[in-house]
Predict the 3D structure of the following.
Amino acid sequence: MQCAEALAGSWNGQEPGYWDGPQDFGYGQPYDKLRRLRSLDPSVMLTVLGAEAIAMFSVSGDGPTGPDVIVQAEGQEIARLAPPDADMVVSQLPFLRMGAKLRDDRMAEILSQQGDILSFFGAQQRLDVNARKWTIVLIQAFHSALAAHEYRVKYMCSVPRPVDLSPRVQPIIPTPGHSAYPSGHATESFAIATVLAALRHFAVKDPADPQRFASVLRDQLAVPYSEQGTNLDPLTQESAVAVQQLYRLASRIAENRTVAGVHYPVDSAHGAATGLMMALSFVCYCSDEMYHGDHVQLVGNDWGQFAVGGNAAGDFTLGIWRDWLVNGWAVGAGAGTNPGGGQSWDQLRAVWAGAVEEWKNTA
């Protein structure tokens, strides 16, 4: 107070003294969206952007005894889930017993991934506030939508956790207090992998190329990692390998939840598919690309019947999931619309553009 009085001197409270900005700074004035967002406190920025992301999606259905749980993006169905019944989850318990053999090797990972999976992606792709500020902001905003809606899906499904079925499961971490199905870690890790793959794609995409990201990614996922050897335009070979690594990491994060004793393989399989579809919708919204029109039908009791190449029916690995998804992914089944095209609140598109710029020449 003493310092302010000494420095301000005689002041009548009217002369601004230094303001040289616009005299009319109300809503409607031309402005740089990124500059306005950058001026906000980080928590406020994420609240603003998270609200926009959350508004994109909706969840409906009456749960396991009623209609399927339906996830929509901008009013268009992207995933329909029918949770597994008691017999199905009981049949999956042997996979938890087999996974328990890996606990000694994976304990550190499992503990770290309880509250932080983004850092694991940062070990593959440079994710820091100096090089990828807007990428991090974009993912954090999207995560708000993922968390809000995945918990609604879980609430409607209400599948008991493995430890509820047998005390011999003995999870090595506290069992979360919500439905096992679908897995939140699988939903989030596969969604993050998809957004990062999309940023790499759009950083090198030819604006005149009409091919949609969903189609490029579907082709990419159809190629086993061991067979990567040719360019997949518009992705360079290096980027193709990077994309495969993203999904290998997402799969490992999901698998670790079964190793820990808190999830069944079907939780990861359907969580991964839900995260993928939500991320594709998010990318379409942010990039202003035509909506991919894809959807997936996720029937919990059917997962245990799936086996390919001699793999154990009902288990979850990236190879099993990829084969199942590529065969069951309904590409172009919906209308080709532009999600959010009529909305005036589109701050996420500015953040997306800033994030894509961060990946150019490094994708």
Notes: DSSP finds 14 helices and four strands in the chain. The chain has a mean pLDDT of 84. The CA atoms of residues 127 and 136 lie 7 Å apart.
